[in-house]
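Deliverable D2.4 — example input (C-alpha cells):
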C-alpha cells in the first residue's frame, strides 16, 4: 500500500480494546482489504482479497460470543 488508508472500526465496537480496523475505501479502489490491530496502529496490517474478507465477515456474523 503506497497511500495511507483511512482506517475505521466496526460500528459494533464498544471501545473495549479488542478491535480491528479496516480500510473500506482502499478495498473499493484496490480490491484488497487491509486490516490491522487498533491497539497498534503503527504495527503490521494484513491484506485480504475482497472475497476472503467477505467470507470472514459472513462467518463472524454466524458466531455467538
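Example output (designed residues):
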Amino acid at each position: 500500500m503506497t497511500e495511507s488508508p483511512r482506517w475505521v472500526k466496526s460500528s459494533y465496537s464498544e471501545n473495549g480494546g479488542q478491535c480491528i480496523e479496516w480500510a473500506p475505501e482502499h478495498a473499493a479502489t484496490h480490491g484488497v482489504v487491509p486490516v490491522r490491530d487498533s491497539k497498534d496502529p503503527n504495527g503490521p496490517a494484513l491484506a485480504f482479497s475482497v472475497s476472503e474478507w467477505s467470507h470472514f465477515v459472513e462467518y463472524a456474523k454466524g458466531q455467538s460470543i
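DSSP finds two helices and four strands in the chain.
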